[in-house]
From TrEMBL:
Protein name per UniProt: Saccharopine dehydrogenase NADP binding domain-containing protein
Domain of life: Bacteria
PANTHER family reported in the protein's UniProt record: SACCHAROPINE DEHYDROGENASE
Native organism: Antrihabitans cavernicola
Occurrences of domain Saccharopine dehydrogenase NADP binding (ranges): 8-100
SUPFAM superfamilies: NAD(P)-binding Rossmann-fold domains
InterPro entries to which the protein is assigned, alphabetical: NAD(P)-bd_dom_sf, Sacchrp_dh_NADP-bd
Gene3D superfamilies: NAD(P)-binding Rossmann-like Domain
Length: 338
């Protein structure tokens, strides 16, 4: 199958996939759109004047053609990542995804290959948090502790994102200690902190940022947080039941929360990182990213461009491969540092 398309976008009709396709076209790309629903693919492809194919992830091999890269945006990634990565390895095609589930990200980063580049988590907030994490870590040589916090701002939410969130919560809390993932109670060690948007409760969450920033910085002890308005005591009391609720919710229908119609003003998204050494040296910083889905579209396409322009890098992260340029160049701006 000859396609004359450098890369394939699988999951193009999802909220994030559509934004990535639109951003790619605006920059002159012509990806091959792929997904499981022809009734949704056809009008999108017609609107963007792009080729498209209907296929399941298990049948992707026979549709790769001369594509040099696959960007996977269809979740839940616990189901879609492994077959797509396997197809890429068989065909010698680069693999990217926008996953942020720990187990998925960890599996991709453990892939042994010298023939392709395999990079997980090429969207918000992992690229952003890893960028600011690398930036502060460079200021604290020998740092052994890294704290991360993401405050996303998104227009609407996708069903795929909701499914991935439920899967992550169902696994309970996790942190990185001495280079290994350790299970913790969800909501444990929740605490108040000052942010650019006021005082918030920082709640440890089990996200792919833990393994991504460990790979990039080598720091062995990492905790990733999200910001909530709950009081820390409420978070520590209520959140431990979420894994049970999340397991039940995985069996319920999911409805995407659509983006509002018309012009809307969004509060900017922010990410924060602090690196600390045993002797007390530390550095921290805030990165403002803008709206989360738009940031993901920018970082994903920028990563596609960077990967297609380089020789195979094996399994790696965006920042380990290309430095902080993509994280900061996709609209990220350092607004506070200490």
């Amino acid at each position: 199958m000859f396609t004359n398309n450098d890369w394939l976008l699988y999951g193009a009709t999802g909220r994030t996939g559509t934004l990535i396709a639109e951003h790619a076209v605006a920059l002159g790309h012509r990806p091959l759109l792929a997904g499981r629903d022809a009734s949704r693919l056809r009008p999108l492809a017609q609107r963007l004047d792009l080729p498209w194919i209907e296929t399941d992830v298990d049948e992707l091999d026979r549709h790769l053609g001369d594509s040099r890269l696959v960007l996977l945006t269809a979740g839940p990634f616990a189901s879609t990542s492994q077959p797509v990565l396997a197809a890429c390895l068989r065909a010698g095609v680069h693999y990217l995804d926008i996953a942020n589930e720990i187990d998925v990200v960890d599996r991709v980063l453990r892939t042994s290959t010298s023939t392709i580049t395999a990079i997980p988590a090429v969207g918000f907030g992992t690229v952003a948090t890893d960028g600011i994490a690398s930036w502060v870590a460079a200021q604290v040589p020998g740092a052994d502790r890294l704290e991360l916090l993401a405050m996303p701002s998104t227009a609407g939410s996708s069903a795929g994102a909701q499914a991935s969130t439920m899967l992550a919560l169902a696994g309970g809390g996790r942190v990185l200690r001495d280079g290994a993932l350790v299970r913790t109670g969800l909501g444990s060690s929740a605490h108040r902190m000052q942010t650019p948007l006021g005082t918030r409760t920082a709640v440890p969450v089990p996200t792919g940022d833990l393994v991504v920033s460990h790979r990039t910085t080598g720091i062995p002890n990492i905790t990733a947080h999200t910001a909530m308005t709950l009081h820390p005591l409420v978070a520590r009391t209520a959140l431990p039941v979420l894994p049970t609720l999340a397991k039940a919710a995985r069996h319920l229908p999911r409805n995407a929360r659509p983006a509002p119609d018309g012009p809307t003003t969004y509060v900017a998204g922010y990410v924060w990182a602090r690196a600390t050494a045993r002797d007390g040296r530390s550095a921290e910083g805030w990165l403002r990213t803008g709206e989360g889905y738009a940031y993901t579209a920018a970082t994903a396409v920028a990563t596609v461009e960077a990967v297609l322009a380089t020789e195979p890098l094996g399994a790696t992260t965006v920042t380990a491969a290309f430095g902080t340029e993509i994280a900061f160049g996709a609209g990220g701006e350092i607004v506070a540092a200490a």
